[in-house]
């Protein structure tokens, strides 16, 4: 099937060339980082994780969101989603690949990365994250490819693949839960030390992921002969609406506990993010923007007439993706480090090389998604025309 | 020329017997073979001896090592002034070849001083006396009994030593994920954001300090991209010496006829100096509510 990826129109090749160009530029920056150290980023002794880990966290959510399509189709026999499960699975493949790359570019000593397997440490959540992420990557490639192959031959997917599909559903939940546990179990970081971290992660995942999937579906409809379908996009829109409301609700729960209890160690991080602390407030406008975007998206999504209008739905999805990205890909990680354990304020802002490396990893993910979508849509069109 | 194989084997066999014979005779002559073996191996275990065929740690002699079951430090803040604090920082960073980096974002520090409100952020209030407000509190790794950093490390590059409770860091195994830095509630850990020695000399013998002093050859160097922190001078304890900062404080105290600012000892030994101080003074620990159980105590 992979041969389908090598046959494409002008636009397809231009897209791939652009992505490869960004990847090349980012790779050169990474070589520089590899040579002189992570000092070329905006990270510091106090804010020791930044953009890379933020993107990683965000994209684990996007990957996990594949389950929002797989679950209704396989467990509730919601037939309409049969048309787009492959798109959700292949989006997850791209997203998990980005996650693994972001971890790799964040390591101070990437050449020693295999020490994680050489000295397995079950007490470390990062060890488990490595296992669940790689497992999820395998599951999605394996399931997606086999189901698509069967479809191409005009036969139903083989029965032996079913256990893997059922396994992939809790597995999707696990990747984001384990990722939340990276943060939620650290004693000195009041911002992250909250039991609602994993539920909040899942809620933001289940709005950001499907929103991105809607956008990808619309692009697929525009650029290929395969139409993911009106009903499919509409249902995804409802999922985004529910999950986004849940996401903001969980955040309000967090705000209540933190501000009503008035415990400084928990409150100061929120004060830094939304009002600035001791004269430092780099992230203040961004955080307010994130919540303005999410609130607007909720208003657009809960009004049925708006949600069913694909133009407005597109806008709402863009707002959702950007809003949750700022909230989780930026504020969540940096906010946990400011103020530091000695209650000193050191701010963080990504540098140009750091941003270019980040962009290159995103380009890699989109290259994977583009190639896989090319294969999937070509097969789907062949089956439809042939049948 | 040319030795027949049979003859070669014969000579080799006799030679081998000759080499083995003397120690065997010695061994048979001693009353306590375990004691004899111990003496022969210089206090190392047979396994360690085998390892030493490949690598022998510099200057490590187990017979001379200071031993304790749970090492601890008492910081007597009353005795600390800027001069003492700076001397502690200087000696620590020198003996451990700690890179001197001026940019505070990339700074590496094992021991440093901070104000009360930063060391005990939960305990600050507006009416605290001036002499406490700006006193230089020495801070370092707390060598927690229940360390969060050890729990999160995905490669066991940081670990708590079983026999004496010191939390150590293997800079040659660390992958640089910095999970331990996120986990440490005391900001005790530093990361090598840049090449630890000046770039123009990268690839030559690393020199770390600004004053061009050669590095301490008895302490390993590090590469960029690894985390490091105070190790309670484990390498000095192994040679029977107390931690460098404590030694500096003792010397200064002797000179001035005062009590030392830092006291180091075994918490499990009821007669140790640290236990005596803990009995006679009211002491604080940093963030005890987090349950990490720090082994550094403060007399304020």
Largest sheet of chain A: none
Task: Compute the number of structural domains of chain B.
Answer: 2
In the sheet with the most strands of chain B, the strands line up as 8-1-10-9
Number of distinct beta strands of chain A: 0
Structural class of chain B, please? alpha+beta
Main sheet properties of chain B: 4 strands, mixed
How many whole angstroms does the radius of gyration of chain A measure? Answer: 21 Å
Q: What's the multimeric state?
A: heterodimer
Helix content of chain B: 25-40%
Question: On the 0-100 scale, what is the average pLDDT of chain A?
Answer: 94
- What is the class of chain A in the CATH system? Mainly Alpha
Anisotropy-based shape of chain A: globular
Structurally, how many domains make up the residues of chain A? 1
Provide the residue-averaged pLDDT of chain B.
86
* Share in helix of chain A: over 70%
Number of strands of chain B: 10
Write structural notes for this entry.
The complex is a heterodimer of chains A (387) and B (300). Chain A has 387 residues and is mainly α. Chain A has a single domain (2-386), classed as Formate dehydrogenase/DMSO reductase fold (Up-down Bundle), CATH 1.20.1630. Chain A has helices spanning 10-36, 51-64, 67-76, 85-106, 115-118, 125-152, 162-184, 197-223, 230-261, 264-275, 284-302, 304-308, 310-337, 352-386. In chain A, helix 2 (51-64) packs antiparallel against helix 7 (162-184) and helix 9 runs parallel beside helix 13. Chain A is globular, with a radius of gyration of 21 Å. The two termini of chain A are 18 Å apart. Chain B is of the alpha+beta class and 300 residues long. Chain B folds into two domains: 5-64, no CATH class; 71-299, Alpha-Beta Plaits (2-Layer Sandwich), CATH 3.30.70. Helix content of chain B is 33%, strand content 12%. Chain B has a four-stranded mixed sheet. Chain B has a two-stranded antiparallel ribbon with strand order 2-3. A two-stranded antiparallel ribbon of chain B has the order 4-5. In chain B, strand 4 (158-160) and strand 5 (167-169) form a beta hairpin. At the A-B interface, helix 5 and helix 6 of A face helix 5, helix 7, helix 8 and strand 6 of B.
């Amino acid at each position: 099937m992979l041969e389908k990826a090598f046959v494409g129109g002008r636009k397809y090749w231009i897209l791939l060339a652009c992505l490869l160009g960004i990847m090349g530029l980012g790779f050169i920056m990474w070589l520089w980082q590899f040579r002189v150290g992570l000092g070329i980023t905006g990270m510091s002794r106090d804010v020791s994780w930044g953009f890379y880990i933020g993107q990683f966290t965000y994209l684990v959510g996007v990957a996990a969101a594949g389950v929002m399509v797989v679950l209704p189709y396989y467990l509730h026999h919601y037939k309409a989603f049969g048309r787009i499960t492959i798109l959700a699975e292949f989006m997850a493949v791209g997203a998990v690949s980005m996650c693994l790359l972001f971890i790799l570019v964040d390591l101070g000593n990437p050449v020693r990365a295999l020490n994680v397997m050489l000295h397995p440490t079950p007490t470390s959540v990062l060890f488990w994250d490595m296992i669940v992420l790689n497992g999820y990557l395998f599951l999605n490639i394996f399931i997606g490819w086999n189901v698509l192959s069967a479809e191409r031959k005009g036969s139903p997917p083989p029965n032996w693949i079913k256990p893997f599909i059922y396994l992939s559903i809790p597995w999707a939940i696990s990747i984001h839960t384990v990722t939340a546990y990276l943060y939620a179990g650290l004693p000195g970081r009041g911002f992250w030390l909250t039991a609602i971290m994993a539920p909040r992660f899942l809620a933001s995942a289940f709005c950001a992921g499907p929103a991105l999937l809607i956008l990808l579906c619309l692009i697929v409809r525009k650029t290929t002969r395969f139409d993911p379908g009106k009903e499919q996009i509409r249902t995804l829109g409802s999922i985004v609406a529910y999950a986004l409301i849940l996401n903001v609700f969980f955040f309000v729960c967090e705000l209540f506990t933190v501000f009503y209890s008035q415990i400084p160690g928990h409150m100061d991080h929120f004060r830094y993010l939304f009002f600035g602390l001791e004269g430092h407030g780099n992230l203040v406008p961004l955080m307010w923007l994130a919540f303005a975007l999410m609130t607007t998206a909720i208003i657009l999504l809960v009004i049925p007439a708006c949600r069913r209008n694909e133009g407005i739905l597109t806008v709402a999805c863009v707002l959702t993706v950007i809003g949750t990205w700022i909230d989780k890909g930026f504020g969540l990680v940096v906010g946990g480090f400011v103020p530091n354990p000695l209650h000193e304020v050191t701010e963080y802002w990504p540098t140009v090389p750091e941003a270019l490396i980040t962009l290159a990893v995103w380009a890699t993910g989109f290259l994977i998604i583009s190639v896989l979508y090319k294969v999937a849509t070509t097969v789907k069109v062949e089956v439809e025309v042939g049948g | 020329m040319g030795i027949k194989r049979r003859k070669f084997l014969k000579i080799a066999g006799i030679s081998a017997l000759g080499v083995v014979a003397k120690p065997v005779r010695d061994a048979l002559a001693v009353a306590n073979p375990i004691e004899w073996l111990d003496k022969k191996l210089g206090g190392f275990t047979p396994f360690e001896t085998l390892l030493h065929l490949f690598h022998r740690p510099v200057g490590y002699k187990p017979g001379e090592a200071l031993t304790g079951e749970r090492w601890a430090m008492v910081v007597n803040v009353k005795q600390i002034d800027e001069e003492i604090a700076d001397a502690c920082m200087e000696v620590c960073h020198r003996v451990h070849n700690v890179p001197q980096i001026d940019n505070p974002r990339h700074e590496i520090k094992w021991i440093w001083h901070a104000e009360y409100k930063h060391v005990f952020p939960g305990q600050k209030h507006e009416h605290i006396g001036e002499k406490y407000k700006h006193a230089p509190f020495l801070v370092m790794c707390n060598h927690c009994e229940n360390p969060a950093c050890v729990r999160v490390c995905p490669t066991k590059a940081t670990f708590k030593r079983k026999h004496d409770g010191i939390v150590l860091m293997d800079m040659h195994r660390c992958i640089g994920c910095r999970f331990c830095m996120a986990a440490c509630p005391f900001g005790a850990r530093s990361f090598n954001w840049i090449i630890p020695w000046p770039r123009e000399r990268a690839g030559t013998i690393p020199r770390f300090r600004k004053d061009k002093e050669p590095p301490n050859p008895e302490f390993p160097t590090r590469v960029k991209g690894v985390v490091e922190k105070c190790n309670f001078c484990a390498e000095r304890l192994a040679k029977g010496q107390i931690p460098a900062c404590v030694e500096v404080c003792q010397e200064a105290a002797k000179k001035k006829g005062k009590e030392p600012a830092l006291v180091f000892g075994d918490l499990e030994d009821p007669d140790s100096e640290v236990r005596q101080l803990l009995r006679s003074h009211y002491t604080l620990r940093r963030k005890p509510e987090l349950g990490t159980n720090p082994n550094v105590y403060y007399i304020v």
